[in-house]
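Have a close read of this protein, sequence plus structure tokens, and explain what the tokens say about the fold. Thanks in advance:
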Amino acid sequence: MATEEVNTLTTVPRTYDDIDEVVNDINVNDNEKDEDSCQEYESDVSSCAGRSTSDECERVVQDMTPTVTQSADSLSTDAKETDFLYKMVDLIFREAIVDETQSNNRPVCSFLSPEELCASLTELSIGQEGSDANKLIDFAEKVIKNSVKTAHPRFFNQLYGGLSKYSIAGAWCAEVLNSSMYTYEVAPVFTIMEREIYTKMLGLAGFRGGDAIFAPGGSISNMYAVNIARHHKLPQIKTKGVFSVKKPICIFASDQCHYSVQKAAAALGIGSDNVISVGSDNKGRMLVSKLEMEIEKSVLEGLEPFMVVATAGTTVYGAYDPIADISVVCKKYGIWLHVDGAWGGSVLLSKTHRHLMEGIEKADSLTWNAHKQMGVGQQCSVFLTKHKGLLMSCHSASAKYLFQSDKHYDVSYDTGDMSLQCGRKNDVFKLWLTWKAVGEVGMEKNVDHMFALSRHLATKLKQTDGFRLIMEPMCTNVCFWYIPPSMRDIPETPEWWQSLGKVTATIKKLMVKAGSMMITYNPEGSRVNFFRMVCTNKDTTFSDMDFVVDEIAALGALL
């Protein structure tokens, strides 16, 4: 059959017209074959109609299926791997998902020191021969046991926590399909799905008609922002480099901004010293008057301002910079406004709390991490900009082996040249599946619940002896000290404050060793160590908030 098809091309095409004619013939033949195949398939399937058992139908399907011959060794290996996979999935359901994350009788962590843990992981080294599958399962069980259960309702340690089971399903499916997201031809469904998610998030930010791209975390999304803001101002740097500009360029961000801004400036050749720190108020919000002063000062010093980074939900205090007021200053001086909403951007899902990002539609770009308050697994970060085509202009390298312009489909779905990466992981399916499952109403309910938890805790702290709330929460961060009975009703000298900082660290140590919960702590400015509690898990309850207060009081009572 194959020989006959080849022989139908009796002459070699000599001109472009001849080539076009041959291509058209091939397309017509392909369409005819597709129609024939469909008719043949429908005929075979219809032949099963009315039969009393499925056996005869199965035989029809078997007759249509080509036989693939495998060696016994290959089948044996495949069977072993499949058996291992089933056992691994069972272990995950039994130990990592159900038991560990749905019962407060289970610990958040089972802490061992690095030395103790290294000594217990005797199977960690990789040998010359493969390991027995049952031993791998045993080791995996040990891995789960000694890992922090970040989906536990009492894990409050970082700006993520909780995990939707829809997200787990999406992540598993994405891993099995192993798509790379650079072109439609290798990720057809998921590139279309990305476009749907981008459109949704751009609309929520007021960036309709803009562009977006998934990135491996908020830090890289912020680096995208710095890179395209610079490209917008000084496009020659892409090809000529940083030495092509006549004077140093600079960025402005509050003294509470995420450190990724400094890292991006260092990595892109701007220099971390050229990230100018702007003072904040007593709630951690950028002072707009200070911003304008710093911009004018930088110009007098021979710098060229090109970007302001506002923060929607600072790492420590959860503060929201006044975006609308900052946008006025940026417009006045012709400066790009980026909003780092990696932590607090999900308030855009809530009618009650989205006012915290008032003026977001006036910004040029936004970082938004779905893995922080949307219940999606790490990592799931999206960079968004209102400027259509700028991501492509800034990052494209036009690799001809990936991004051919004469492909047989709409190449606008090939987003790889918009990204700094080549291969890019499928982060969209876990987000889409989670969002689709709960809908807009469900997402809003979850965000509102996390905010309600933080307000409940703040009220409880103010009503309980020994606790001192540092400030009322803006996002879901609740910052506070616990003062043990031995330190109450005495002068609060500098030595007293130093001792209080040690109390915070000691209580953290005790809670981790008990495995009862995890809350981080840190100093900030003149403030000694304090607890920074965050609410990120939709499964956390008001009872869990009460437990936080009771547990800290119990652990610190004898200090």
The chain has a mean pLDDT of 87. The radius of gyration is 29 Å. Residues 36 and 396 are 42 Å apart (CA to CA). The chain has 18 helices and twelve strands.
